Amino acid sequence: MIVSLNWLRRYVDFDMSARELALRLTDSLTEAELVDAPWKGVTGVVAAKVVTAEPHPEADKLSVCVVDWGGGSSTVVCGAPNVREGLTSVLAPPGSAIAGGRRVGEQTIRGRRSHGMLVSAQELGLEESSEGILELDGVEPGADVRSLLGLDDEIIDLDVQPNRPDCLGMIGVAREVAALTGAEFRFPGVDLNEAGTTAAEMAAVEIEDPLGCPRYIARVISDVTIGPSPAWLATALRSVGARSINSIVDITNFVMLEFGHPIHAFDYDRVADHKIIVRRARGGEVLVTLDDIERTLTPEHLLICDGKNPVALAGVMGGVDSEVSEATRNILLECAWFDPVVVRRGAWKLGIRTEASQRFEHGVDPKAMEMVAARACSLMAELAGGQVAPGLIDAGTDGGAIPAITLDVHHVTSMLGEDVGRDETVAALRSYGFGIADGADGKLTVDVPSHRADVTIEADLIEEVLRAHGYESVPPEVPFRSLETSPDSGQAARDHVLEAMVRLGFYEVMTTSFMSGNAIERLGGSGVRGEPIELSNPVNKEMPFMRMAIMPSLLDVVRRNRNVGEKDLRVFELGKVFWKDGDGLGERWALAGAMAGQIHRQSWDETPRPVDFFDGKGILWAMAEALDIDTPETACYDSELLDAGASAGFSVRGDGLGFFGMLSKRVRAAWELADPVFVFEIDLDRLCGLIPTAVEFEELPRYPKARRDVALVVGERTAAGDVLAAVNALGEPLLVDVQVFDIYVGKQLPPGKKSLGFGLTYMSRERTLTDGEADEAHSRIVSHLTEKFDATLR
Amino acid sequence: MLDRLTELGREAKAALQSAASVVELENVRVKYLGRKSEFNQVSRGLKDLDPDERRSVGRAVNELKNALGALLEQSKERLESAGDEPVGLDPTLPGRRPWVGRKHPLTRTYERLESIFRGLGFEVALGPHVEDDFHNFDALNIPADHPARDGWDTFYIDGDALLRTHTSPVQIRVMESRKPPIRIIAPGRVYRNETQDASHGSEFYQLEGLYVDRGVRFGELKGVLIRFMKELFGEDVTLRFRAGFFPFTEPSTEVDVECLICQGAGCSVCSGTGWVELLGAGMVDPRVFETVGYDPGEFTGYAFGLGVDRICMMMTGTDDIRLFLENDLRFLRQI
Prior knowledge:
The complex is a heterodimer.
Chain A: E1 2-4, H1 5-8, H2 18-28, E2 32-35, E3 46-55, E4 63-68, E5 73-78, E6 88-92, E7 97-98, E8 102-103, E9 106-109, E10 112-115, E11 117-118, E12 155-158, H3 170-181, H4 199-202, E13 204-207, E14 215-222, H5 231-239, H6 247-259, E15 264-267, E16 275-280, E17 286-288, E18 294-296, E19 302-305, E20 310-313, E21 317-318, E22 331-337, H7 340-350, H8 355-362, H9 369-384, E23 387-388, E24 393-396, E25 405-407, H10 409-416, H11 422-431, E26 435-438, E27 444-447, H12 458-469, H13 491-503, E28 507-508, E29 514-515, H14 517-523, E30 545-546, H15 551-563, E31 569-581, E32 584-596, H16 613-626, E33 632-635, E34 642-652, E35 655-663, H17 665-670, E36 677-683, H18 684-689, E37 706-715, H19 720-730, E38 735-744, E39 753-762, H20 771-789, E40 792-793
Parallel strand pairs in A: 13-16, 28-31
Antiparallel strand pairs in A: 1-12, 2-12, 3-4, 3-6, 4-5, 6-11, 7-8, 9-10, 14-22, 14-23, 14-24, 15-22, 16-19, 17-18, 19-20, 20-21, 25-27, 26-27, 29-30, 31-32, 32-36, 33-34, 34-35, 35-36, 37-39, 37-40, 38-39
Chain B: H1 2-18, H2 22-33, H3 38-45, H4 51-81, H5 105-119, E1 123-124, E2 130-132, H6 133-136, E3 161-163, H7 169-177, E4 182-191, E5 203-213, H8 218-233, E6 239-243, E7 249-258, E8 275-284, H9 286-292, E9 300-307, H10 308-316, H11 323-326, H12 329-332
């Protein structure tokens, strides 16, 4: 809401600077910002009357004028189409300054000397664009136009919150200023001079949809003369960024901005049967609105109709057929209370939002309607010479009595932590216009003014007291009270995984939760559950889905970084992935990582080598080790994402948690990645579930270990993992560790064979093993393996 | 012959003393004392000499052998005590550094916030990102078709499913499942259907706080937030509490921190106001308590919410929120 301080002064006196007022409103109401007015810097301009206006001999569109500026007269060259003899406008003489502080001097235009210039509203910063110079009827030449044109005005931009629709009108803001300063708030004057036929005889109102329109007031003003608005009215509108159109339209806008209650003026003679009917639109019904757009309506729209046709979209915009024009003589004035939801939905459906719809959406004050209508009538009588028909047509209800709220003064103290005191509480509420009476048990009975419909419960009143008392004034206290703790959110385990990955040299990244259809296709089902969840209104049309896996956006990170020269990458993300299963929507945590580029950082003696499968696998196993998950297994995994020769599943105790391997050529091409990339993605919830929450102390071994090696010659397709699994499955009690230390394929072996070297470590917790005991355990294992894998010893 | 031995001895002694490594020492030993060494040849040739010569040369050989043996031991000890490194390496060459990982700046910011709030007695609670209308709006006193909803540009799925626009629904979920006292923080990603620019993302991070108990007061809310800010930004930080509006708190307050860049003088970061809006907070609206089945006559509470991205930006001077989700390593490495 743009607030003009000159306008505010119509209702309240204050001598605070604009800056201070903005600060005070920010503290007690909502953020208020002092705006640099575009007319700032204008100096030295005066009212001047055009005495003569002759065509410029050298230019068709220019006039040479003699103007009277009170203290004398000057010759100026003017290009405005509306310059004419007898017109009073504004002269910027040499030495004066116009908008933006631009200096005006003397200059020669096509051979004629111009002593300054006649200016338009635009040149003074009052309008964004103007077609001609200012026209000031009835102003004496030489008069100071600063206040007349509002050049001395200051502007505050108020960020009005949805709970305070009253502050979408100057009067609401003025009430706040009055409460802040203790000054008196004044309502604008109303002088109706009603005469002639009564409104009830001239028109009728029928509400067919009382839910959409609980109350409708109509008044009639006859014999208006439509013309330009007086300077003060045009100035007021301009000060808040509205345009002056004609006196009647300007009055409706002015009263809306004054009370925050939109009103509408119909051309009485173009309202068929002089009858207003408020009803829902029929499906397919059509109305051409003031902006000349044909609107096709649905029963969600509320219409104002005359005896025959729709004439306005209720609360949103008037219709073109009943629009006030130069020819209008009689006015049917509407002041209505439309349901916020109906207006909101109707406007939203048509994709329009007007000053009026915005105010109805937030809610208007149904008990101020007589006053709003009377104010408009009074101005129409005063400024357009109209005659106000006696009485008003009032259909519907004002919503009935507003229930009083009981306030326990002790609750103010217990809610704020500071004893504000009964007197201050009462004074605070009174300053905002609440009525106070003593209630039972020392409590207060508080009457809520009708413009404060946001206040409905005791807590709302406490906020009012706090606003008046000052948020800053309440002393801070730091409480320390004991509290039971509750089950862990799972965050601790995920933090553990995060730490492990960072320790392994990985950068954590955070990527988008959205995903494209292409990416889903490229994933080929890897690590994915269910169907994708699609957004109805994605911000990026290319990515309408919630991500089902982290991998695609992680590969985007790889590509982005490679494109800027960051080729050696180790990145991971812990994040949510989403899916749909029938009607159910699911989400879980996932861990994904990627490695690309060189395995070692660049160094003076390392041989460069790109990342390979076992580098990546080693990272995963080391991560498991860091998490005390001691039994990860390699499983088969088929995926279009991965290279068929270098893909595997990551599983623990037979439970598949995810995949790892080298990105397939096809997918690399899709992401424009030339070099090998190792990737993995794991179900983080299940991984976290495997992290032991408690560990138990085990006595440190006191006896030495004995190591025995064996090299088995097996078929080249025999998997080392199977051999290791067979060793572990045997459950030899003395065996404490087994490692693969060598793989050999070559001339020294028969074709189709390979040698696998295993180092086995034996130990007893009870005694030092003899060589014999170690040998015995070792040979049990070796003979089991030779038999199971048809192996020979090398 | 004796002259030759003396010369050999001198050479060997010099070589032993100057050997720079155990390996080099071993080479010296092999050269001068090894099987194929000249010295050994002399020893072996002793038997072919005439007795007189054999005696004098033999004595010289023995003396030299003992002397060199002792020197060898000495040198060995010297080198071993100095470690095995080759003397003469260039210590200014860079070492072989392993890769060093790093947490995302927002993770580190969040960890900082979490540790402060844990110290103030808060625990962590989390909620789903795909929310429903009830938890994200209705239960928070933001009814359908109310202008208050305009404050949240929402991503909709279908039915009443949507992406949470704030972390506040976690408040509701926690209160639905537990009885007071409750003192939680709820961090996480939130979603707004907004055009992205340097200060607005459609995916960003919030941290919500909620404390519900008997007799919780606005003064405590102030106390906790002041304590938090001081721990985060230092004891000199200045806060401003002013009026605010949130449908789910009453009274509500906006909390500004005096601009850390210009110390309140006014600069581009604070748009010349000297203050930066950092948190929204307030006393839990009784209607929210009624929705979750708490008796507002018995319990009061406060809630607050802050932008993790914004705090990180303020602490590091990062000027574009989009950098956080772009994950350019040159950025991640910096801050």
